[in-house]
Design goal:
The structure holds 2 protein chains of 2 kinds. Chain A is an all-beta fold. Helix content of chain A is about 0%, strand content about 55%. Chain A is built from no helices and 11 strands. In chain A, strands 2, 4, 5, 6, 9, 10 and 11 form a 7-stranded mixed sheet that branches. In chain A, strands 1-3-8-7 form a 4-stranded antiparallel sheet, with no helix packed on it. Chain A is globular and about 40 Å long. In chain A, about 40% of the residues are buried. Chain B has no helices and 11 strands. The mean pLDDT of chain B is about 95. In chain B, strand 5 and strand 6 form a beta hairpin. By secondary structure, chain B is mainly beta. Classes of the chains: A mainly beta, B mainly beta.
Amino acid sequence: QLQLQESGPGLVKPSETLSLTCTVSGGSISSSSYYWGWIRQPPGKGLEWIGSIYYSGSTYYNPSLKSRVTISVDTSKNQFSLKLSSVTAADTAVYYCARRGAADLDYWGQGTLVTVSS
Amino acid sequence: EIVLTQSPGTLSLSPGERATLSCRASQSVSSSYLAWYQQKPGQAPRLLIYGASSRATGIPDRFSGSGSGTDFTLTISRLEPEDFAVYYCQQYGSSPVTFGQGTKLEIK
């Protein structure tokens, strides 16, 4: 059974960089059939697509965040990562990683809350 | 960017009733790349429907999706207690991927 698990600091200071990692188990991140993505959800609000990456390293970012986002992949560790720079309180959210295939987002991590505060 | 508008914002129904949730797109959704997700408090969203009408693995057949172009519908034929949650539609045919604002299905 495929599982995804987010990890990283739960508290980030304003203007700093948010860094999260998603570890994939029960399947290979190098599968040619899937992209791997990040989605976030501010407390009490809806879902926002951040971006996705293919195992080869090709990326796609939401234009609204593109200038601050970097998504990378480490196939040797079966992980992919998110970096979001120059964070503000508006970036406080639950961050999810997910697998994206033909059926779109079919497996999700449990999510991790990241709070931006000094 | 395709804007998805879901209605109603909140739907109050009783177990056993039929639920009809709407998702309208600001422009045509390419190749019916429209999905529906269910989210319960404190949990990640769960994929219910993809390709506008295909049920995801393990989803009961009381959930069905329909529509094309700019108008899509999620129908739950007979509500079970575990179906009360927030539902999101999402389009993944055009860049960027976008979500609707959600419909809360609550017990009447």
